[in-house]
Amino acid sequence: MIFDEIGQYLTQTARLAGYDETMNVTFSNMPKICDFQCNDCFSLAKKYGENPFEIAQNIVNSIKNKEDFVFEAVRPGFINIKMTDKKMSEIGNEYLKDERGGVPMHEHSQRVIMDYGGANVAKALHVGHLRSPIIGESLKRLYKFLGDKVIADAHLGDWGLQMGLTELQLYLDGYLDYYFKGDKKEPNITLEMLNEAYPKASARKNEDEYFKAQADEWTLKIQSKEEPYYTIYKKIREVSVKEIKKHYSELGAEFDLWYGESDAQEYIDKAIKIIEDKGLARVSDGALVVDVAVEGENVPIPKTRDDEVQRYKNPMPPAIIKKYNGGVLYATTDIATILMRNEMFNNPDRIEYIVDLRQKNHFVQVFRVCKMSGISPENQILLHIGNGTMNGKDGKPFKTRSGETIKLEDIIEMLVEKAGEKLKSNGVEYSRDLALKIGVGAMKFGDLINNVDKDYVFDLDKFMSFEGKTGPYLQYTAVRINSILAKTGMAKGEFFVSNEEEREIIRNILKVNSAYELCYRNKTLSPLCLAIYNLASAFSTFYNNYNVVNEKDEKLKQSYIALLMLVKNKLAQALNVLAIEIPQKM
After folding, report:
1. CB-based burial of residue 72 (10 Å sphere; 0-12 exposed, 13-18 middle, 19+ buried)?
2. How confident is the model at residue 402 (pLDDT cuts 50, 70, 90)?
3. Dihedral pair phi/psi, residue 71, rounded to 5°
4. Is 8 in contact with 1 (CB distance < 8 Å)?
5. Kind and range of the H or E element at 283?
6. HEC assignment per residue over 118-135
7. Whole-prediction pTM value?
8. Mean residue pLDDT across the chain
9. How far apart, in whole angstroms, are the C-alpha atoms of residue 224 and residue 218?
10. How much is the pLDDT for 345?
11. 230-242 tens-digit pLDDT
12. What is the predicted pLDDT for the residue at 363?
């Protein structure tokens, strides 16, 4: 990376000037003046008791034979660095030849299991299921791009209370008489049945304690694989997972594994035995629990709109790993799943969960139990990447006008419809596949440009704009470049910088390349989103000022074409990491 090249040279030069310190370089916030800057002379001034500007001058005066950069000491103590046109041209040509466009891979690859998606079987996917697959898919692609070996698991919620609730409601509604009353005709369990049964059962359990107790018993029978409960469970799972796969496919989320909580069932007893053998478990009100609190720890109580100050409870409550009736909970299956993953995949370096931020305490409990018991090795990283919520324009979680949670399939259709309107207004022939690419791309970019842990507002009109910081703007820029390249019909030549607009493009390409590592460290895609938007904007300025297709100077025209190919490659590379497709036309 160019930062390393400049930083190493400045470090060597500083030592020649009498300052034994590692010098760091950053992008300049005033690109018209310089491309990079070094601010370390201020810290050197404190260490050596000298004026920072004089230190900067001493270092710059010690520079010799560096033709690629121009160094300048400026008050009160900065070193400004500007690349020559020759150096920028070399970078552009080097990136064109490199299939990775100048982005280095990590020297040491890590083995990573990513848990994202988290859809619950028997429930219709809704707006709350959007952020996990969007963020998880992009992080997965980022990790792979930088060299990690990644396994993505959808980790379906298929072993909890919702299964018992759904089966019990189907039974009470008369759909399961074949299994319990000997009716001759076996029922065809449909998605429509499930979409009706679960919401009805979920509402009833909050008002009917007997019904809730019955559902607990049904859930335990399923978990014990008792018939016919387990056979019915498998049929419900099959119908539901088919629909889940369809919607995740439309979102561009791809999984290596479609395991669920049920797949960890055979590891539950083993995990509990490990915990008990370590002397970590105790009985509390008939349930088996593990104390995970840290001394002096304060756990925040979620704020309400009426709270003026943050309230706390202390300490962290114990993790419940077995219910009073012998049933297991989410914590149990998550602990067993970590054991399963470590045994199946030989203790991966990291296990990451992209799940709603509101599940923070749950994962703290689960991770602590796994570390305390040795289920997770000491050097293994267990990480919860908590995402914020997607809100409506009123700042509240996005819902229908009647206050109901919006189904994921309805969100997708909203995106397709809005994209279709845009296509028609642009005179482009409509196709659902094209509208889906644009609509989903718009939603993804609208999500990913925000920090993962922050809430954001779902603004369909804003997301779908072909101008500004939006997915369609970036898709349209890539489509336009492809169109220009098709019109020229020329092979690219040698790229050389001849104007400030091209310099700005190269500067932004360097920022795009540096954004990958920033995203990796911070577990968020927002730096990459912002960097490619700035690159697309720099290209638009260049395109508006220079007529590539009608340029008379053939050498200059070939240089322009090379620049266009470089921008196209960098946009395509970044959009692929973001899991946003580039359409053929827009």
Report:
1. middle
2. low
3. -105, 140
4. no
5. strand 281-284
6. CCECCCCCEHHHCHHHHH
7. 0.92
8. 93
9. 10
10. 98
11. 999 999 999 999 9
12. 97
- In the predicted structure, residue 79 carries a pLDDT above the cut 90: yes
Distance CA 163, CA 122 (A): 7
Of all helices (H) and strands (E), which one includes residue 365? helix 360-373
Rounded CA gap, 347 and 111, in Å? 9
Tell me: cis bond preceding 302? Omega within 30 of 0 counts.
no
Q: What is the CATH number of domain 260-387?
A: 3.40.50.620
Q: DSSP letter string over 432-461? A: HHHHHHHHHHHHHHHHHTS-TTS-EE--HH
3-state secondary structure of 165: helix
Q: What is the DSSP string of 215-261?
A: HHHHHHHHHTT-TTHHHHHHHHHHHHHHHHHHHHHHTT---SB--BG
Q: Helix, strand or coil for residue 32?
A: coil
* Superfamily of 408-577 according to CATH: Isoleucyl-tRNA Synthetase; Domain 1 (1.10.730.10)
Phi and psi (nearest 5°) for 333? Answer: -70, -35
Burial 181-203 (b: 16+ CB within 10 A, else e): eeeeeebebeeebbbebbbbbbe
Residue 40 has φ and ψ, to the nearest 5°, of -75, -10
pLDDT (0 to 100) of residue 312: 59
Dig out the tokens for 205 from the structure: 């359990």
Q: What is the mean pLDDT of residues 401-419?
A: 85
Question: Partners of 384 in the beta sheet?
Answer: 353
Tell me the per-residue pLDDT of 83-101, one tens digit each, with 9 for 90 and over. Answer: 999 999 999 999 999 999 9
Cα(362)–Cα(355) distance, rounded to whole angstroms? 11
What are the tokens at 309? 């100050």
Which pLDDT score, from 0 to 100, does residue 400 have?
62
Distance of CA 433 to the CA centre of its chain: 24
CB within 8 Å of 3: residues ≥ 6 apart:
25, 26, 36, 514
Residue 326 has pLDDT above 90, yes or no: no
Which fold is adopted by the domain 2-83? Gyrase A; domain 2 (3.30.1360)
Closest CA to 247 of 150, 141, 154, 115: 154
Neighbours of 342 (CB within 10 A): 19
What counts of helices (H) and strands (E) characterise the chain?
A: 20, 15
The per-residue pLDDT for range 199-242, each reduced to its tens digit, is 999 999 999 999 999 999 999 999 999 999 999 999 999 999 99
pLDDT per residue as tens digits for the range 110-150: 999 999 988 999 988 888 889 999 999 999 999 999 999 99
Give the HSE-up count for residue 337: Cα atoms under 13 Å, Cβ half-sphere: 31
Domain spans in the chain, listed from the N-terminal domain onward: 2-83, 260-387, 408-577
Q: 295 pLDDT band (50/70/90 cuts)?
A: confident
Provide mean pLDDT across the span 296-304: 70
